[in-house]
């Protein structure tokens, strides 16, 4: 009887969870219709909500040039290369009619590529941010802005994609020359569709392959000279209309260049502090909820490609105190900002 009662409770809880999820989906659909923005969720949460895709059509690294988003020096309206990747997850598997080469119930990747390039060709030669470019692609492909709001132009112009066939759309914009020390800047937006309305969306900024000579390590030889540390940063639930990736990169490079930690773990925690402080204190509309940090030491283990650590933190959980002194650094032992006096004391105690 006790086992039966426990199983019944689990079934009831599961039914309640399903009902709540259905209510949330319905409310998101109504919100989109009423012109309300769809809240951001993390990229992983969105993937979990999607489940296993049954059919996906992709275009990867479509190459073009663009004038608008800031370059590696933070200058706008400079022409630079752009790579676009798009992935369309369908609500149903490819139909059996695909045997006679009909594509009415799927997405033609050739036409998808042409639609993307056509949108980019129509962009004004002005100081558009990377998020502006993403939004324009979103409108032309779906009829929705990437905020989840139906775009007014959708009433006069038909969107390229038939949203009733789509479960998820992901668009990734990569600027391979917009980083001084890294390999690329990446902005990725994704959304889920239910009944032709956006019910969930994610937005993530990535700073990839930042190579900085850093004094790090516990061995005596590692304390004598700097070695290259490769950093990959992803800022999830990222919201801003500005191109501030050059600012974030400079903060990362400065923090790593001036550090002398013994472990990658301590360095990752330090970077989390510096990035969170920038996101939380500089501007109200510049914010990222989750910071994912990956660090690699290529020369640490001779027979391995690299030694790696990863850290994920919520921006709001990083402890930040405003210091009145100019000499501000991250204090690893107390997870807060320490002034010059505290830094000297900590250094003396270690030595």
Shape: elongated
What is the topology, as strand order, of the major beta sheet?
1-2-3-4-5-6-7-8
Mean of residue pLDDT values: 83
Give the C-level CATH assignment.
Alpha Beta
**Could you tell me the strand content as a percent range?**
25-35%
Domain Dihydroneopterin aldolase/epimerase: 205-313
Catalytic activity: 7,8-dihydroneopterin = 6-hydroxymethyl-7,8-dihydropterin + glycolaldehyde
Pathway: Cofactor biosynthesis; tetrahydrofolate biosynthesis; 2-amino-4-hydroxy-6-hydroxymethyl-7,8-dihydropteridine diphosphate from 7,8-dihydroneopterin triphosphate: step 3/4
GO molecular function: dihydroneopterin aldolase activity
Describe this structure in words.
The chain is built from 7 helices and 10 strands. The protein is α+β, with helices and mostly antiparallel strands. It has a single domain, classed as Urate Oxidase. A hairpin with an 8-residue loop joins β3 and β4. α3 (109-121) crosses α4 and α5 (245-258) runs antiparallel to α6. The longest helix is centred in the first third of the chain and has 32 residues, at 2-33. Mean pLDDT is 83; it is low at 16-23, 25-34 and 322-351.
Task: Describe this protein with a few key phrases.
31% helix; alpha+beta; 29% strand; EC 4.1.2.25; 7 helices; Urate Oxidase; dihydroneopterin aldolase activity; 8-stranded antiparallel β-sheet
Helices and strands in order:
Elements: H1 2-33, H2 43-50, E1 56-67, E2 79-90, H3 109-121, H4 130-142, E3 166-175, E4 184-194, E5 197-214, E6 227-239, H5 245-258, H6 264-281, E7 287-297, E8 307-314, E9 329-331, E10 336-338, H7 340-350
Antiparallel strand pairs: 1-2, 2-3, 3-4, 4-5, 5-6, 6-7, 7-8, 9-10
Helix pairs in contact: 3-4, 5-6
């Amino acid at each position: 009887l006790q086992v039966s009662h426990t199983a019944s409770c689990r079934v009831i809880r599961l039914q309640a969870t399903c009902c709540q999820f259905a209510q949330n989906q319905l409310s998101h659909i109504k919100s989109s219709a009423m012109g309300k923005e769809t809240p951001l969720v993390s990229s992983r949460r969105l993937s979990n909500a999607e489940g296993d895709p049954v059919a996906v059509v992709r275009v990867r690294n479509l190459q073009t040039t663009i004038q608008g988003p800031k370059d590696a020096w933070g200058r706008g309206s400079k022409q630079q290369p752009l790579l676009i990747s798009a992935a369309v997850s369908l609500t149903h598997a490819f139909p059996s009619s695909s045997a006679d080469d009909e594509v009415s119930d799927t997405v033609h990747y050739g036409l998808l590529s042409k639609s993307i390039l056509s949108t980019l060709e129509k962009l004004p030669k002005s100081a558009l941010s990377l998020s502006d470019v993403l939004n324009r692609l979103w409108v032309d492909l779906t009829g929705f802005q990437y905020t989840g709001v139906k775009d007014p132009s959708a009433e006069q112009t038909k969107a390229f994609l038939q949203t009733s066939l789509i479960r998820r759309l992901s668009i990734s914009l990569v600027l391979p020359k917009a980083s001084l020390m890294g390999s690329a800047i990446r902005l990725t937006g994704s959304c889920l569709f239910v009944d032709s309305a956006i019910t969930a969306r994610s937005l993530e900024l990535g700073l990839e392959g930042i190579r900085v000579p850093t004094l790090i390590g516990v061995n005596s030889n590692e304390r004598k000279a700097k070695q290259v540390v490769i950093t990959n940063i992803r800022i999830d639930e990222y919201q801003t209309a500005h191109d501030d990736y050059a600012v974030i990169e400079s903060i990362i490079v400065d923090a790593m260049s001036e550090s002398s930690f013994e472990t990658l773990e301590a360095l990752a925690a330090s970077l989390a502090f510096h990035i969170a402080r920038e996101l939380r204190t500089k501007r109200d509309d510049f914010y990222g909820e989750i910071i994912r940090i990956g660090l690699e030491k290529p020369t640490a283990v001779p027979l391995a490609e690299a030694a790696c650590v990863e850290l994920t933190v919520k921006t709001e959980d990083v402890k930040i105190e405003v210091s009145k002194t100019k000499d501000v650094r991250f204090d690893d032992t107390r997870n807060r900002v320490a002034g010059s006096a505290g830094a000297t004391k900590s250094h003396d105690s270690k030595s």
